[in-house]
Amino acid sequence: MSHLLSSAGTAVLAGPAPSDPTLSTFGKDPWWLIGGKVLVIFVFLVLTVLMSMWVERRVIGRMQLRVGPNRCGPFGLLQGLADGVKLALKEDIVPRNVDKVLFVLAPVMSAVPAFISFSIIPFGPTVSIFGHHTALQGTDLPVAVLLVLAMSSMGVYGIVLAGWSSMSPYSLLGGLRSSAQVISYEIAMGLSFVAVFLFAGSMSTTEIVNAQADTWYAILLFPSFVVYVITMMGESNRIPFDLPEGEGELVGGFHTEYSSLKFAMFFLAEYINLATLSALCTTLFLGGWRAPAPISTVWAGANSGWWPVLWFMVKLWLFIFFFIWLRGSLPRVRYDQLMKLGWKVLMPFSIGWILLVAAIRAWKNEGHDAGGVMAAVAGIAIVVILLTFAWEFARGKGSAEPEPAQAAPEPDAGGGFPVPPMDAPHYHGRRDVPRPRITETSREEVSSGTH
């Protein structure tokens, strides 16, 4: 197998070995090569969705002592394809009172930005394809990382419009939850990128990968890496942060009223976002397509030819497995816990970390040794975090003490919940609402038709 890959790489890379891609190398490909890249990215994402569904079901099935899909194809590999055919052939039900324009547009607004985001992800270095030297990347921009944030914000519009146009309280609550969740966690995600921009000196994904030739940013900027891993789970709307769907409380959330291909587009967007967030984490913090340190130091050709595609795919699927592992291990958090983690923990910590990184970079640019300063500040930060956790634990333990018994209040007609006026006819059937007393006079009025 390695001999075949080596010979294939030698055949494609015939001629002078191209250098690593830079931002200036993009925009020079012929039209057929650009179209081929777009087609490859589209097919790759569709196949990744099918494989992610199969891997997720098999892994969670193994974690829960089940078999998982094993009927469609060998080892159930065609189960995702069978589900796609089933969704395409199901009846497309559109409720009567929905806003039809927004109801149809919402799934498109969720799926299309998910495809666009992957166009700036680098798969590998510069290679030769049919005599043309080109980078294994759709395109690149001076602000490429901000494109991903913009597309994720556009995808939220699809979720919110789906909840709004469905004219369902469950769908509307799911859409509102998604908008609040994305606002909370996208800010923290953007703040985790700032430290990467300061170290790389660019927002281009190509330049960021080139800047990690010696050391990955997951090591240099470990706090930013941790913040991003947490926020990408919030961005993906998956367990433990799948509050917009919340089957136990919102039936299905924002896509309760959807079926057939419209529901399939939401399903597709979720798994494409899963792959995009994993690929972005690989690009920003794990060196992108570059081989790990033991391999790159021993093998000089590990970062040339088509081999970097293998390293990129390994890192990508490790993160996808991480998502699946969390879904099979953690329960859904409460909504107040979700908001508290985003606004009271991640954002203040990210702002403080950015100030520290900026100060260290300025100190180092002036020619001073920043190693001792970083060690001292890291020790202080660890102590502060431990004290914070200890304080939260002590406060939670103190609040769990039983309160002194109090006299039970008088039960009201609504059982403690706000209810409409008691003369509303549809509340007369409730057990906790007192029924009107029926007297002989009222019976006579009813029988005579005067009441």
UniProtKB/TrEMBL annotation:
Question: HAMAP family of this UniProt entry?
Answer: NDH1_NuoH (MF_01350)
Arranged from A to Z, the UniProt key words for this protein are:
Cell membrane, Membrane, NAD, Oxidoreductase, Quinone, Translocase, Transmembrane, Transmembrane helix, Ubiquinone
State its Enzyme Commission number(s).
7.1.1.-
Which sequence ranges are marked TM in the entry? 35-55, 101-121, 141-162, 183-203, 215-234, 263-286, 306-325, 345-364, 370-391
What Pfam families does the database record attribute to this sequence? Answer: NADHdh (PF00146)
Q: Which NCBIfam families match?
A: PRK06076.1-2 (NF004741), PRK06076.1-4 (NF004743)
Please classify the protein's predominant subcellular localization into one broad category: membrane
The reaction(s) annotated as catalysed by this protein in its Swiss-Prot or TrEMBL entry are:
a quinone + NADH + 5 H(+)(in) = a quinol + NAD(+) + 4 H(+)(out)
Subcellular location per the Swiss-Prot or TrEMBL entry:
Cell membrane; Membrane
Q: Please identify the protein, giving its name as recorded.
A: NADH-quinone oxidoreductase subunit H
Q: Indicate, by first and last residue, each region the UniProt record lists as having compositional bias (Low complexity).
A: 401-412
Top-level taxon of the source organism: Bacteria
What InterPro entries does the annotation carry? NADH_UbQ_OxRdtase_su1/FPO, NADH_UbQ_OxRdtase_su1_CS
UniProt-annotated stretches for the region Disordered: 400-451
Task: Outline what the protein does.
Answer: NDH-1 shuttles electrons from NADH, via FMN and iron-sulfur (Fe-S) centers, to quinones in the respiratory chain. The immediate electron acceptor for the enzyme in this species is believed to be ubiquinone. Couples the redox reaction to proton translocation (for every two electrons transferred, four hydrogen ions are translocated across the cytoplasmic membrane), and thus conserves the redox energy in a proton gradient. This subunit may bind ubiquinone.
